[in-house]
Write a structure and sequence with these properties.
By secondary structure, the chain is an all-beta fold. The protein is about 0% helix and about 55% strand. The N and C termini lie far apart (about 40 Å).
Amino acid sequence: QVQLVESGGGVVQPGGSLTLSCTTSGSVFDTNIMSWYRQAPGKGLELVADLSPTGRRHYLDSVKNRFTISRDDAKTIVWLQMENLKFEDTAEYFCAQEIKQHPQDQFTKYWGSGTQVTVSS
């Protein structure tokens, strides 16, 4: 069983910073794309950032140059460093990872349960 657990959310003033963490536990043979998504109240889920096994990063346009996605060498933790936070960054943030538990498996996308980020003055 694979489990992803996010942490690091909270309330921050505009212009402030937060770093989210997503820790993976369970039996993992390989990890492909590691991602962060968010869902603001009344809006759909949107991809914030992702990181490929080769280190290629992709960011939502509105967070470029403010957010940074990174991971540890073992691919057990993925972080999202968020700087210069804006009101519109308020959302529930979810991590997602494409994981194989066995060599013969296809990659399956696993999700964490989310962590709330609120930007408020």
